[in-house]
Amino acid sequence: MSFAEKIENVVIIGSGPAAWTAALYAARANLDPMVIEGEPSPQMIPGGQLMYTTEIENFPGFPEGLQAQELMERMKAQAVRFGTRVVGENVATVDFTVHPFVMKLTWSGEVRARAVIISTGARANWLGLPNEMRLAQSGGGVSACAVCDGALPAFRNRRLVVVGGGDTAMEEANYLTKFASEVVIVHRRDSFRASQVMAKRALENPKIRVIWDTAVTDVLGDDFVTGVRLKSLKTGAEEDFECGGLFVAIGHTPNTSFLEGAVDLTEHGYIQTPHAWRTRTSVNGVFAAGDVMDDYFRQAITAAGTGCMAALEAERWLALHDGIGQDPVLETAESSIAQADHGGILTQ
């Protein structure tokens, strides 16, 4: 049977903590979910942003910590154990104007589903330097998340470099002062783009200093960062600057280009969820979880939490509108929202 001949109950697009948590909950609810986990590319690989991290010490339940790739393998295995089916392709396009919803895959034609959970995450914006990506992927001291990696022993009592000039860079720099001997912000301009309060907080921190009008042109080190090459954008002069870690804080790009307007997005490209504490999108029956709808927390544990929420909402939506599974007890507030919701597809 081809994909197009079967109507799936729930299709989950993505392969990070949100996707596998959603799959686990959907599978245990007997919804027989399918996960479209994506294909490797220079920007992202199946498993999401965590695949560019080494050891994780802040995921509950692992007091000794564990490797990020092992965590993703365990989460996937747990979802598969309960019957989740996995397709290793990308979704090229979607059509949410019809029901069942239609997703066109890169190789295997179309998949149709009664409900969809989008959990494709957001990719860190990198400088694009060869050694930067090599060391980021190997756990060699290049990171795009200070909260994820800053407390690791390899970064403690070291001089750390943060690249960027927005609020994210200020937050990363201030956070890293808890562990580093010194934090140096390297910025291409002579002033920050960050809000005044965030910039002031960084500039007044005695453990932070700034190198203005400067770009990082290379990352030094074979197995682990030993320094960065800096180029003055005023004089053109270059120097090798010793440091024990590089944190790139120039923003994230949500992986939503394949949606092409199928659901409402924020001005920064993240999926909008109209109701607080809900994962429902602007299209009824389509839900979003993880970093693709969260530009604030961006943590594995929060992504997993929203994956759980999306699966529960999808289960309830299917029970109400498609008669799939047992109809759970719904709160009055949720029933009111469902009755008042006229956008997208309500019943078919």
CATH fold descriptor of the largest domain: FAD/NAD(P)-binding domain
CATH level-two architecture of the largest domain: 3-Layer(bba) Sandwich
Low-confidence stretches: 326-348
Radius of gyration from the CA trace? 22 Å
Q: Determine the mean pLDDT.
A: 89
How many structural domains does the protein architecture include?
2
Percentage of residues assigned to helices: 25-40%
**Ends distance:** 24 Å
Query: What's the β-strand tally?
Result: 19
Strand content: 15-25%
CATH class of the largest domain: Alpha Beta
Total number of helices:
8
> What is the H-and-E element order?
EHEEEHEEEEEHEHEHEHEEEEEEEHH
Shape: elongated
Main sheet specs: 7 strands, mixed
**Fourth CATH level, the homologous superfamily of the largest domain:** FAD/NAD(P)-binding domain
* Quaternary organization: single chain
Structural class: alpha/beta
Quick description:
With 348 residues, the chain is of the alpha/beta class. It has helices spanning 17-28, 68-81, 130-138, 146-149, 167-176, 196-203, 300-321, 332-340, and strands at 7-13, 34-36, 55-56, 66-67, 85-87, 91-95, 101-105, 110-118, 122-124, 142-143, 159-163, 182-186, 208-211, 214-220, 227-232, 238-242, 246-248, 252-254, 286-288.
